[in-house]
Amino acid sequence: MKLKNLVGQRFKERPADCIIDSHALMLRGGYMKYVGSGIYSEFPALRRVTAKIEAIIRAEMDAIDGQEVLFPVVMPAELWQESGRYDSIARELVRFQDRSRSKLVLGMTHEEAAVQLVREYGQSYQQYPFMIYQIQRKFRDEARPRAGMIRVREFTMKDAYSFHTSQADLDQYYQRCYDAYHRIFGRVGIPEVVAVAADAGMMGGDLSHEYMLLNDAGEDSIVLCAACGYRANMEAAANIVENDGGEAEPLECVETPDCTTIDAVCRFLQRDICVSCKAVVYQKNADDAYVAAFVRGDYEVNETKLRNLVGEEIHPAEITADAPLTAGYIGPYGLSKQVECYCDLSLKGIAGLVAGANKEGFHYRNLNLERELGSVSYVDLAKVKEGGVCPCCKKPALTIRRGIEVGNIFQLGTKYSSSMHMQYTDKDGTIHNPLMGCYGIGIGRLAASVCEAKHDENGPIWPISIAPWEVHICCIRPDDAAAKKTADALYEALTARGVEVIYDDREGVRGGQMFADADLLGVPIRAVVSPRNQKDNKIEVATRDKSVREAVEISECCDYICRLRDKMHKTLLSHAPVLPV
Amino acid sequence: MKLKNLVGQRFKERPADCIIDSHALMLRGGYMKYVGSGIYSEFPALRRVTAKIEAIIRAEMDAIDGQEVLFPVVMPAELWQESGRYDSIARELVRFQDRSRSKLVLGMTHEEAAVQLVREYGQSYQQYPFMIYQIQRKFRDEARPRAGMIRVREFTMKDAYSFHTSQADLDQYYQRCYDAYHRIFGRVGIPEVVAVAADAGMMGGDLSHEYMLLNDAGEDSIVLCAACGYRANMEAAANIVENDGGEAEPLECVETPDCTTIDAVCRFLQRDICVSCKAVVYQKNADDAYVAAFVRGDYEVNETKLRNLVGEEIHPAEITADAPLTAGYIGPYGLSKQVECYCDLSLKGIAGLVAGANKEGFHYRNLNLERELGSVSYVDLAKVKEGGVCPCCKKPALTIRRGIEVGNIFQLGTKYSSSMHMQYTDKDGTIHNPLMGCYGIGIGRLAASVCEAKHDENGPIWPISIAPWEVHICCIRPDDAAAKKTADALYEALTARGVEVIYDDREGVRGGQMFADADLLGVPIRAVVSPRNQKDNKIEVATRDKSVREAVEISECCDYICRLRDKMHKTLLSHAPVLPV
User: From the CA of A18, how many Å to the nearest CA of chain B?
Assistant: First the structure.
């Protein structure tokens, strides 16, 4: 198509409120438009990108025997009451009433709808296994939409649900999907995406992986082991701490005036922070009951781990005057029984701790948890640290990186099939709940992530598989009859060969402006026709990633570009790394 | 794919609550599943149909220079307040609040979003004309969902919006879209769809057409002229009535005991119903103010016409004791000034009417409207009758048929561009609001309409362009090695040639059951491999519409089917009638 007809305006200035490059470039390039908090419209340039991503995902889902279905965006509350999530999910789930006061929700995920669709179909073991998927809009009332298409409230998602009669079968299918995801990310141009072990969160499953694009713009922290390749989301990474014990000495309660932080008290008592016990206090959302988490002074609490241990939603505590807690002096020994208490594994094996004495102005010295409390159930609730010990190979080789989650896969077990009474009759006549897996990819976020991974200061550098067009022709000085004729002919020849071309033949627009626009559209191959090239009987062909720049004979140019394009597609297709789970 | 793997169960019994065949067949065939009132999920068989419809629509929209975009399902209330529709649309528009109490709506149509997207882009006349479209989910809180996918609350819709700088340009584009719609309906297999003049309704436009599939299952009434081809929705069809005058006689007020219907009073006074004046009373939704519509006794009020005249929402009146109306005796002469009054054109030219006297137990005889009321502005508010006079050719040749609306197109004028302040600068520097057109097709309803138009008692007869598969292979007795080998080879050969095949090789399923399932899936070409055919070295090939049934040599069969399939596609493509607006 001709660039002059393309709906969507491009501009030069970086919008003020963009914290990441892809957001700024996708606004500047006429890809998307802000409609409301976390809500965007897609201009044609982006819709072409998302449509290509959708086609790649469909092909890969079909290749692993997926069958496309469509669930509704709006669902009756009853469906979510069946699974229990109508009550357990907080305000992310939009609830409203229709004209007859029936309660409805907006789908933020579709496990319930999937089970409802196939509950009758899947009554015999003979129907298993099967996988259904959809590409559909979802709405999640995020508290903090951010970074353009990276974290929005409304989004298009591919979500897939598989059903199985045995754990072995689920494991096998999970692996197929795991591999298909790597092929998808390879085909859309970011084969560097890594799968990391993940926390199953509200999906409530057993095994789970997230696909992470390692990128400073990401909001997730990823733990990687340089020695053995272990990878996990910070939320799921086991924290390994070895303490070297020491001699147990008698417990002392000492006055520590104005020492309300763990650093201050360690300094005051001249003890290393590695033998201190830090308190971090939360409250349960449901009833504001207090929960105290104790970690070694140099560690931080991982809220997700703690939430999973507590088994319900929590928030950082506000310690009121009548609370059974002495702010600044909270410790595990002598703590009020009203407070639920968790001790992290990082405290295990320390013979004498510095810890709060639960008394204004006092701390303990030489606190020995097992001696003082009788018995202690240590739990893993701290965040892994840079340089920490790998839970897999036990080497102190952990690094922490930022990542954007571009996909996730879960083993759900029978969580939904049992709560929603989906059952099948086995060969031997016995009744079981099928096992489920679910598999998601956000389309818009994936487009933005590719842009974040592949861009320069002038615009996106789209991989050819998802670029809005494959070739961008600039006709500099279309008022020059010879140049215009050459450019028109190239446009027609390429289009006739099935190449997707955007053609800039705007009159009165300078070359610099044309190139700036081309950079913002990020089309992988550019052909520049100009009176100067024309004189030499050449067309200048260059790639957006600057790897190719060549003056090609006019008569050769269409063939040359077609070969280049085919090669670029093939290179991407070869990026389908399969990594072990 | 193999039928045994297809998700979705088929069954024999017609579900109890289905008023139309397509609904029953699409449930029985495993196409769709009820989720909630007016809300369905699509099984793979239907998703394949809707995906093909979407592809055809995309191709035709692209062919008239449409550019695909994507608007959000959820929109901020402010956007709808700009156009005024946040307040003017009743409960069809779902309104809710998010976690921060911001008001949101669910998109039931996207004029507002379209204007918001291109308001900055369209600031210069040079950008015009352009058209953008999307294929997206919508939710409309219908009071009475019915007939399966025909009238639902959540649906996938293709909605397109065009922008123009002159009425001539809009007219020209409107015609292109008008033709494209006929091509779409031809390509999906229902070329018999007719365009009829329509009422613009809440879209608030000027010129509008609906595309109607004439079918008894439809909920619209369509007026057709057998003489000249005039076609209009009942809501938009002008009603032509010629009265032959007569002599004016003196007004009389006569007692008409117990005559509270127009039939009763005409019988009692021995007058023809064609000289009577019937009152139909409504109330305004906003303030319950009364509105009286008067029509000739043998006509019915068309509520849509009346609503347009009143200019706001109305409902049939409840005449309370303190109302300024005498139920059963309401007439235009002597009516309380508190009641807004409309006289239909069917009353014009009658010298002496029978009409209510606005007095309990009394009617007028010889009421002459112009004489009694001074002057009368007659308006068109009655429904056309079978055999009525065509407003176009003036012949009494009107017939009335039921129809399903499968698409609509509107000229919106500047309604949205002016209310939402979308402006462009013209060549001469003047500022204008662009003119708009909008163009909709509901995907699911179209699928159901095709099924309604093309089915027999055993299942849908899908046109090949949108059939879930092109060929259905039944292997009767797959335990017979020779038959199975033949069927497998045909499946592979057809698949290798790019034919979409569903292959039924289920063991232990009788031929009758296989054929019943094949009928429900409605695939246009069926190939039956059986031990009996095998003996003769034949495969039986038949079409779902029964036009072809032939025993074909095994070695010829793949070629034969491919030729048949190509011919069927070509026949459909040739169904692209272009009718004048």
Answer: 19
Domain A252-379 in CATH 3.90.960.10:
yes
- Strands of A340-344's sheet in order across: A314-316, A277-284, A290-296, A340-344, A378-379
**C-alpha distance from residue B226 to each of A21, B214, B232, B449, B581 (Å):** 64, 14, 13, 24, 17
**Which DSSP string do the residues of A371-395 spell out, in sequence order?**
HHHS---EE--BPP-TT-B-TTT--
Choosing among B2, B4, B70, which should be mutated to test the A contact, i.e. which has the most A CBs within 10 A? B70
- The reply to whether B79 touches chain A by the CB within 8 Å rule is yes
Delimit the domains of chain A by residue range. Answer: 20-237+399-453, 252-379, 469-574
Backbone φ, ψ for residue A12 (5° rounding): -90, -40
Residue B164 has pLDDT above 90, yes or no: yes
Query: B50 to chain A: which residues are within 8 Å by CB?
Result: 70
Confidence band of B201 (pLDDT split at 50, 70, 90): low
Best B2, B6, B7, B119 residue to mutate vs chain A (most A CBs within 10 Å) = B7
Q: How far apart are CA A493 and CA A495, in angstroms?
A: 6
Chain B: residue whose CA lies nearest to A131: B7
Among A74-83, A87-96, A462-471, which stretch is predicted with the lowest mean pLDDT?
A: A87-96
Same CATH topology for B17-72+107-226+401-453 and B469-574: the answer is: no
Confidence (pTM): 0.89
State residue B200's pLDDT score.
60
The answer to whether A113 and A107 have CB atoms below 8 angstroms apart is yes
pLDDT at A580: 40
Contact check, Cβ <8 Å, A41/B72: yes
Q: Any CB–CB contact under 8 A between B395 and chain A? A: no
Does any CB of chain B come closer than 8 Å to the CB of residue A72? Answer: yes
Share of chain B above pLDDT 70, in %: 98
Residues B414-448 have pLDDT tens digits of 999 999 999 999 999 999 999 999 999 999 999 99
Architecture of the structural domain at B17-72+107-226+401-453? 2-Layer Sandwich (3.30)
Question: Spelled out in words, what is the top-level CATH class assigned to the domain B469-574?
Answer: alpha beta
Q: Is B130 on the interface with A (CB under 8 A)?
A: yes
Interface of A with B in 132-171 (CB under 8 A): 132, 134, 136-137, 139, 141, 143, 153-154, 156
Q: Is the pLDDT of residue A578 over 70?
A: no
Q: Measuring CA to CA, which residue among B433, B422, B421, B410 is closest to residue B109?
A: B410
CB pairs under 8 A between A and B: 164
For chain A, counts of helices (H) and of strands (E): 15, 31
Q: Check if the beta carbon of residue A50 is closer than 8 Å to that of residue A56.
A: no
Tell if the CB–CB gap between B67 and A79 is shorter than 8 Å: no
Predicted confidence at residue A581, as pLDDT, reads 39
Strands A130-139 and A353-359 come out as unpaired
SS3 A35: strand
Please give the angle made by the CA atoms of B164, B167 and B170, to the nearest 5 degrees. Answer: 50
**pLDDT tens sequence across A34-44:** 999 999 999 99
Asked if the Cβ–Cβ distance from B121 to A48 is below 8 Å, we say no
The answer to whether B554 contacts chain A (CB < 8 Å) is no
Whole-number Å distance between alpha carbons of A321 and A513: 65
Q: What percent of chain A has pLDDT over 70?
A: 98
B9 — contact with chain A (CB < 8 Å)?
Answer: yes
CATH number of A20-237+399-453: 3.30.930.10
Q: At what angle do helices A443-453 and A21-28 cross, to 10 degrees?
A: 100
For B77, nearest residue in chain A (alpha carbons): A36
pLDDT in tens, B321-347: 888 988 889 999 988 899 999 999 999
